[in-house]
Specification:
This protein is an alpha/beta fold. The protein is built from ten helices and twelve strands. The strands form two sheets. The chain has a seven-stranded mixed sheet. Strands 2-1-3-4-5 form a five-stranded mixed sheet. 36% of the residues are buried.
Length: 266
């Protein structure tokens, strides 16, 4: 697991709802909370506000917002294709295991695809990120009031339903896999954090300091192939040597994209 760091937990206003949210975070596993600065120096801070939750470290912050998932949901509901869904081939009733949850964008799109009878298991190695994303999914409808078009309204409603189908677990995927039965999920998905931060992506820059950046382990891919009924999918940079090293076949498409998807059929 990632090394635990003490984090200050604060509410910006003396609201009962914000205090209830603080209590919820205090019960999340793996997190170490403090209510005053460390003598060694400034600590990371989790700020609970009326507009949401922010994890702050120095000048950078991480917060949950569907962002790209919302845009993708709008396009999907309009009938457009989505490369993640083309690679995973998720269908209603399926179970997706997102082994590297991050900010949960792909998990939301996966939960949208599997429908009411399906589910998504999201694994996040960082305890604080797992807590922030779980909280964000629990409160996703608080952002839906900003929908100013019918397309956005439909997408928000779809994502709100999808959020309820995601189970967030604080877990290292290798350990989690070993306790799972063979052929117990339909698709296992990996989106490892890019080991060289993309300068144009503020969300990845902020996320980087809370994540580990080790290459994906071959044993984890083999375990994923054991527990998957249909396929294992890897998202990586275009021309990455990880696809060949780990035994993935690249899915055709995305000629002008900076990323590719690889598949192992099981």
């Amino acid at each position: 697991m990632l090394k635990e760091r003490p984090i200050m937990l604060k509410a910006t206003h003396p609201d009962s709802e914000l205090y209830e949210r603080i209590k919820w975070f205090q019960h999340q596993p793996g997190c170490i909370w403090v209510d005053s600065e460390d003598k060694v120096g400034p600590l990371p801070e989790l700020k609970i506000t009326r507009r949401g939750v922010k994890l702050i470290q120095g000048p950078e912050s991480v917060s949950f917002h569907p962002n790209m998932a919302l845009i993708r949901a709008i396009n999907i509901l309009r009938g457009a294709s989505d490369r993640f869904l083309e690679a995973t081939l998720l269908k209603p009733g399926d179970t997706l295991l997102d082994a590297t949850l991050g900010l949960g964008s792909d998990a939301l799109i996966g939960a949208l695809a599997v429908g009411d009878q399906g589910k998504v298991l999201g694994l996040e190695k960082s305890p604080i990120l797992a807590a922030v994303i779980k909280d964000g999914l629990n409160h996703i409808t608080e952002n839906s009031s900003k929908a100013n078009t019918e397309h956005k309204k439909r997408a928000w409603e779809a994502l709100a339903g999808a959020a309820g189908r995601i189970e967030v677990h604080w877990a290292e995927h290798g350990d989690f896999f070993r306790h799972m039965q063979s052929k117990s999920v339909d698709v296992v998905y990996f989106d490892p954090m890019f080991r060289s931060t993309l300068r144009q992506s503020d969300s990845i820059q902020s996320l980087h300091q809370w994540s580990e950046h080790n290459p994906l382990d071959l044993e984890a891919v083999q375990e994923a192939s054991r527990i998957a009924r249909n396929r294992v999918v890897l998202k990586e940079r275009k021309n990455s040597t990880e696809f060949s090293r780990l035994g993935f076949e690249i899915v055709p498409g995305g000629r002008y994209s900076s990323i590719d998807y690889g598949v192992i059929l099981v």
